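STRUCTURE:
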């Protein structure tokens, strides 16, 4: 068949007649249709097409075992939150999920209840506590909570500091009443990495790269869906314009400021500290 602009999409789709993976065929059919519609919609110039190819090439070249520029592109274009929403339609009452992000580390150190996860990171001391329950309201004992966050001043994760030690990261477990508690520093807002093609894209779109301050948690417990979420700091100036669209109202929490004195772990702090409580609810699997 000879090329005809108006028939090209159907011609490309027809070439998949021997594809024997139905799901892959569904995905590719939709992708090809949307891609062709997009090119027609904006009447893409050859210069723009080549710029896109160069951007995709640079995005791949920026990736290594520590940096995933494609995930960052997906995050900043809202794709990651859309995939998250479609795949985690938890029942009413369950804690909402949000974006995973690139700074999780598998196999972080285990800590006892009320241990200090900050490992000397900069920032105001912060005590976080609460419960983990099922949607039936029953406490979940021995749930595993992975915690990770930035420091409280520069907004950097430990993995962003070359040759640094771990900080603000660890695994804790709930006690027999489903309670957890740990000490950390109050996180601060921070920019997503902008020293790559995603940074160039954000600047060109007239967007800022900031994420509002948050603590990441990933909670696993037998018989329950794994929950990957954040607890956001109420009052943060970027809650309404998170660069990765991850904020949900139910995840925004007051971090109460306290003068030096008695702390929730039964000890004392010789400087001002904050406290935050959040009760997580896991959906049944
Ligand atoms: C984060 O919260 O750690 C994060 C999420 C998406 C992109 C960059 C960072
Ligand atoms: Fe984060």
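SEQUENCE:
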């Amino acid at each position: 068949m000879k090329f005809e602009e108006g028939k090209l999409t159907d011609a490309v789709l027809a070439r998949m007649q021997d594809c024997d993976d139905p799901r892959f065929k569904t995905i590719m059919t939709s992708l090809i249709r949307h891609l062709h519609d997009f090119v027609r919609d904006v009447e893409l110039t050859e210069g723009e097409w080549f710029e896109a190819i160069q951007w995709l090439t640079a995005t791949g070249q920026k990736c290594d075992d520590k940096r995933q520029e494609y995930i960052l592109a997906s995050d900043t274009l809202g794709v990651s939150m859309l995939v998250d929403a479609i795949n985690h339609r938890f029942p009413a009452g369950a804690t909402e999920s949000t974006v995973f992000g690139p700074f999780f580390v598998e196999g972080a150190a285990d800590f006892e209840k009320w241990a200090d996860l900050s490992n000397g990171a900069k920032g105001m001391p912060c005590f976080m506590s609460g419960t983990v329950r099922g949607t039936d309201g029953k406490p979940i004992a021995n749930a595993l909570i992975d915690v990770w966050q930035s420091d409280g001043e520069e907004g950097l994760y430990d993995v962003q500091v070359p040759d640094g030690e771990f900080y603000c990261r660890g695994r804790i477990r709930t006690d027999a009443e489903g309670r957890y508690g740990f000490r950390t520093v109050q996180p601060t807002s921070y920019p997503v990495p902008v020293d790559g093609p995603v940074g160039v894209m954000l600047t060109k779109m007239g967007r800022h790269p900031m994420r509002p301050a948050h603590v990441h948690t990933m909670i696993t417990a037998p018989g329950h869906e794994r929950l990957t979420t954040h607890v956001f700091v109420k009052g943060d100036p970027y809650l309404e314009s998170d660069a990765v669209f991850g904020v949900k109202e139910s995840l925004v929490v007051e971090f109460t400021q306290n003068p030096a004195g008695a702390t929730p772990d039964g000890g004392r702090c010789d400087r001002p500290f904050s406290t935050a409580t959040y009760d997580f609810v896991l959906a049944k699997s």
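REMARK: Residues 80 and 140 are 29 Å apart (CA to CA).
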